[in-house]
Design brief:
mainly alpha, 4 helices
Amino acid sequence: MGGVISEDERKSMLRAHSIGPKMIRYLEDIGIERLADLEGADPHQIAMRIDILVGRKHMNSLGVAALRNLIELANTKA
């Protein structure tokens, strides 16, 4: 499981408000490799996948908001 996010994709993702290197690692670990993988995604579903990955409730409302920002960026780039 898990993917590898290219440096260019990483730079694009980091432009979203509240997205940092740790969130990028979580996304890699759940198999997200490109910003386009998030087009039309549900931030709560992505947060749930991260919670499952870490084995506990980890993503709070700020994390979900950060994912929402990233998904909005993905949708605008589509």
